[in-house]
Specification:
Blueprint lengths: L2 E5 L4 H9 L3 E6 L4 H6 L2 E4 L10 H14 L6 E6 L7 H10 L7 H7 L2 H10 L7 E2 L9 E5 L9 E2 L12 E5 L4 E10 L3 E14 L2 E10 L5 H18 L2 E11 L2 E8 L18 H11 L13 E7 L4 E2 L2 H9 L3 E2 L7 E2 L4 E8 L3 H21 L2
Parallel strand pairs: 1-2, 1-4, 2-3
Antiparallel strand pairs: 5-8, 6-7, 6-8, 9-10, 9-12, 10-11, 11-14, 12-13, 14-18, 15-17, 16-18
Amino acid sequence: MPTIAVAAISARAMAQAAASDGFGVVALDLFGDADTRRAASRWLPIGAPGSLQIDGASVMAALRSLAQEGANGEPVLGWIAGSGFEGEPDLLEEGAAALPLIGTAPAGVRRLRDPAAFFGFLAAHVIPCPQVLLHAPEDPAGWLMKDAHGCGGWHVRQAPWEMDEPPSPHHYFQREMPGLPMSATFIANGRDVHVLGFNLQSVRRFGARPYVFCGAVGPVPLADEFASRLTDIARALTVEFGLRGLCSLDFMRDGDTLGVLEVNPRPPASMSLYRRPRGTPGVMQAHLRACLHGELPSTPLPAQDPEGIEIVFARQPIELDAAAADRLAAWPGLRDLPTAGQRFDTGDPVCTLTASGASAQQVRARLDDGRERLLQSLETHA
């Protein structure tokens, strides 16, 4: 298998999936967690952990180095952009000129993250979504302000919102919709889609941020008609915006009512919930085949019990000593393992819990319990 580079705020899930599929891996992210480094032959930092933002200059330096020198004497086939690049089409374009980008083209990402283009397409094709305005509503009650260049829900604000300057062209206002936040995880080839499954998303309030993404549980069953509608929407968006590879469609579900929120044109966190049987291409092989050859998986995934992921955020400042790092390393099902000496401020992501169960409710309960026990352990020994 060739060597590929994976880049994101946190690249661990992509690095592990690629290594599991037999690829050589170079990981570019902010954290350099222990399990990320184990999955990769090389790790390169592309930003400060506490910033939760990718540094463009560091990305370009890393990509140029890989293009010129390769990794461990082997050429690097290309790079895959993950979380943090949604609002960086110029950086994607510059990076693609240095090393081939394996995913949705920068021009497609630019249009997808333009609120006028994205929501204009939904309106023109009568695809349901919560009401959207490109300017602040006269009465802000019941409205959210969002940044189309943001990710993870950190950019979402409820009224009254405070801004130091007028909204940029990539800010928009969306009426709140009741229901459950969900997503569809799918693979696209620019013309069609293969849906891996549907997921319940977990969001939580952090101060002034009401809807921070904390994890997902999936697959969860949906009625055939509802699932078919979502598949048709994903296909229409794929054709219009040239989606390629692993993607996710975020939506609200209120009974039989559907409201599209956004599309993530890159491998989503929920990709780790889906594993193909041994001997068949995994999700990263499927990503490359869709991007490079236009091939989609020919068979659906076999039925599986739901699994879940939960990002654990610090509730208070934490300094991770060697004993605490060892406890985390031994914690069952823990991912994104930090190393001794790392410091976390309140609200910083510490690690990721995983769980499985017979139902989504059981998985959610196990994640909630695990989160509380893990935080209590860290806080007790802080």
